Each structure stands twice: as structure tokens, then as C-alpha cells.
From TrEMBL:
Keywords per UniProt: Amino-acid biosynthesis, Isomerase, Methionine biosynthesis
GO MF term (any one): S-methyl-5-thioribose-1-phosphate isomerase activity
Similarity comment text for this entry: Belongs to the EIF-2B alpha/beta/delta subunits family. MtnA subfamily.
EC number per UniProt: 5.3.1.23
Protein's name according to its UniProt entry: Methylthioribose-1-phosphate isomerase
Organism name: Hyphomicrobium sulfonivorans
Record-linked PANTHER family: METHYLTHIORIBOSE-1-PHOSPHATE ISOMERASE (PTHR43475:SF1)
Annotated active site: D243
Recorded superkingdom: Bacteria
Pfam families: IF-2B
Associated pathway: Amino-acid biosynthesis; L-methionine biosynthesis via salvage pathway; L-methionine from S-methyl-5-thio-alpha-D-ribose 1-phosphate: step 1/6
Transmembrane segments: none
Catalysed reactions, semicolon-separated: 5-(methylsulfanyl)-alpha-D-ribose 1-phosphate = 5-(methylsulfanyl)-D-ribulose 1-phosphate; 5-deoxy-alpha-D-ribose 1-phosphate = 5-deoxy-D-ribulose 1-phosphate
Length: 364
């Protein structure tokens, strides 16, 4: 996608041919900062501190983190240590472990002296595959938007989303936003309600930044406004992303997603989850088994912002001395999900629905 007319991905190989560059998402929307990652420790830190975030991008960054580690030491023991180290950074997003498994499968069967080149090749392929996967998610999801647009006779389709499941959360295109971008580019009138997404404000900071850069009409709303908007008929469809989907169709996504799904169900608003195949965890039978990351309470108690002079500061926003809990994700039961939008098509949010698109996963 583009920022001020210049095309970007979220992660790419640096000009030196071996280190990696990323957009530092902790600086957005106030500054566009590019950070160079030269070690596996730097890649892990970028994942942990959310310089990169979003399940697909976490996976891509972990893949390049493995390549950086293997460049330094391609032994079996070193590869296993690097994989375990990277896996420990974020517990909920399954793409992280998926990408690490892909990297290990690609390099461990090879002679030690061939592993670094293979690692970089597989990491690059994971990124390219993610771009095409997200493009296809948009192709299938756009049909849902087109159907609503046809019923509205030229009035804008109002989409509500939560957190950032855009191109900044992937390598390009995004998951939940890919149908929006493709419908907009095809001339479909659109408006997006952007949940601010406390406590890190990924909606207000990142999704709004993306949509504004692409020229898509949008409005930032507080997280608790979604139900009100649905009650008044101002939401035609909810599309969100996910960090992990259990085999039965339960969905782990940014905290607050469950409440949006409840409101959508109560108001007969379709609620769709957009995801790539790498986000499905076939080893987890239901959402109760998904580990939920608990992040530092400072994310709730403090907030960064830009002053009139342009400087960016972090300020305290809560009562001094009060503790804060900060679960980063919640689980939306499959019964509240209208369907999944994947690179293979749209399916029901159930084990049977997923297997209809991924029949190979049902082979024992």
C-alpha cells in the first residue's frame, strides 16, 4: 500500500542484502520511522514491544529473525534456541509459531553451509505468500460488500472494524481491510467506523492512518460506541481480523471484539472474521484452550500523544496509585460469527465450515 504516494510493505530486506527493515508502528501516526533489525534479539524486541504487530506480520518478522540467527550460527542447537526464543515473545498469535515451524522445516534437513541462504529464501517467500493471501481475502470479502452496496442503491456501505487488521498488521493489503480497499478501488461508496481500540489505540493510530492515506472515508469512534451505532442502523457489516482461530471456529482477537460480536448478534448485523490459513490452529479444539496475553498495566494507565509544538510525549491518564489489568485479547465464540473470509473463500464459522475450505486438514 502507499504512504504519501510511496508504496510500502511493512517489512523488507535492507539494501545490504542481509539485515531487515521495518516500519516502527509505535511511532505512528505521528512519525514514519524505519528501524533496521540486524540480530535475532532485535527481531524479538520488535515483536515484544509491538514495533511490529498483527498476527501475519509477527510471523513474517519471526521468519526473518530466524534467518538473522541462522546467518550467525546455523547449527541445529542454535536454530532450536532461536526458535524457542522468538516463540516466547507473544503467546496468543499462532502465526508466530507457524512461521517458526516453516523456517525449521525449510532449513533443518539441509547441510549447515546451505541453511542461511535457504532461510532468507523461505522468509522472503513467507512475505510474498502473505501478500497474495491477503489480496485473495479481499477478493472474496469484497463480494459481501458488493451485495450490501447493491441493496443500498448508491448509499455508502458502513463497515465497522476493531483494532488494526490492515496492511500494517500484515505484509501488505491486510485481512479485514483488504475487502475495503478493493471495494473502494472499484468505486464502491464506503465509510468505515474505526474503533479507537484501547488501550494501545491501534484503530485510532493505525487503521485511521491507513484509511486516510488511501483516501477512504472513515470516522474514529470510542470502543463503546459500536453497539449504539448498530442500534441506529448505522453499521451494515462488521469485519475484524484475528490472532488465532480454534478448530471449532472460536476466535481470539483484540480485547473488545467479543462485545462487538454480541452487539452485532443482538442487532442482526453480519459479523465476519477475515483470516489467512496460517491463523487457524488445528491443534486447539476450542477457544478456552487459547492462551491470552496479559500485557503491562502501563498501557492502560498511560497514553502517548502529540503536543501542539509537534513533540510526542507519554502522559498518565488514570488515578495515581491505581493498578490496571491488561488482557490483550478475548475469545468470541463461533456461534456469534457470521462467517470466515479466507484466501480460499467464505465459509461458516465452524469445524465443518473450515474443513470445507481446507479438506486436507481433515485427513488423519
Amino acid at each position: 500500500m502507499k504512504i504519501e504516494g510511496k508504496p510500502y510493505r511493512t517489512i523488507w530486506l535492507a539494501p545490504d542484502g542481509w539485515s531487515v527493515e521495518i516500519i516502527d508502528q509505535t511511532k505512528l501516526p505521528h512519525a514514519l520511522a524505519i528501524v533496521r533489525l540486524a540480530t535475532v534479539e532485535a527481531a524479538a524486541q520488535a515483536i515484544l514491544t509491538m514495533q511490529v504487530r498483527g498476527a501475519p506480520l509477527i510471523g513474517a518478522t519471526a521468519a526473518y529473525g530466524m534467518a538473522l540467527a541462522i546467518r550467525e550460527d546455523a547449527s541445529d542447537d542454535a536454530i532450536e534456541r532461536a526458535s524457542a526464543f522468538l516463540a516466547a515473545q507473544r503467546p496468543t498469535a499462532i502465526n508466530l509459531r507457524w512461521a517458526l515451524d516453516e523456517m525449521r522445516r525449510a532449513v533443518l534437513p539441509l547441510p549447515v553451509n546451505a541453511r542461511a541462504e535457504a532461510a532468507y529464501a523461505r522468509a522472503a517467500a513467507i512475505c510474498d505468500e502473505d501478500v497474495e493471501t491477503c489480496r485473495l481475502i479481499g477478493v472474496h470479502g469484497r463480494k459481501l460488500i458488493d451485495e450490501i452496496a447493491a441493496r443500498k442503491n448508491g448509499a455508502p456501505v458502513n463497515v465497522l472494524t476493531h483494532c488494526n487488521a490492515g496492511w500494517l498488521a500484515c505484509v501488505d493489503w491486510g485481512t479485514a481491510t483488504s475487502p475495503v480497499y478493493q471495494a473502494h478501488d472499484a468505486g464502491v461508496p464506503l465509510h468505515v467506523w474505526v474503533d479507537e481500540t484501547r488501550p494501545r489505540n491501534q484503530g485510532a493510530s493505525l487503521t485511521a492512518f491507513e484509511l486516510g492515506s488511501h483516501g477512504i472515508a472513515h470516522t474514529i469512534v470510542v470502543d463503546n460506541a459500536g453497539g449504539h451505532l448498530m442500534q441506529h442502523g448505522d453499521v451494515d457489516i462488521v469485519i475484524v481480523g484475528t490472532d488465532r482461530v480454534a478448530a471449532n471456529g472460536d476466535v481470539a482477537n483484540k480485547i473488545g471484539t467479543y462485545l462487538k460480536a454480541l452487539a452485532a448478534k443482538d442487532n442482526a448485523v453480519p459479523f465476519y472474521v477475515a483470516l489467512p490459513h496460517s491463523t487457524i490452529d488445528w491443534t486447539v479444539q476450542d477457544g478456552a484452550e487459547i492462551p491470552i496475553e496479559e500485557r503491562h498495566g502501563d498501557e492502560v494507565l498511560k497514553m502517548p500523544g502529540r503536543l501542539p509544538d509537534g513533540s510526542v510525549v507519554t502522559v498518565e491518564i488514570a488515578a495515581p496509585g491505581s493498578p490496571a489489568g491488561n488482557p490483550a485479547f478475548d475469545v468470541t465464540p463461533a456461534r456469534l460469527v457470521s462467517g470466515f473470509i479466507t484466501e480460499r473463500g467464505v465459509c461458516a464459522a465452524s469445524r465443518e465450515g473450515l474443513l470445507s475450505l481446507y479438506p486436507e486438514r481433515g485427513v488423519k
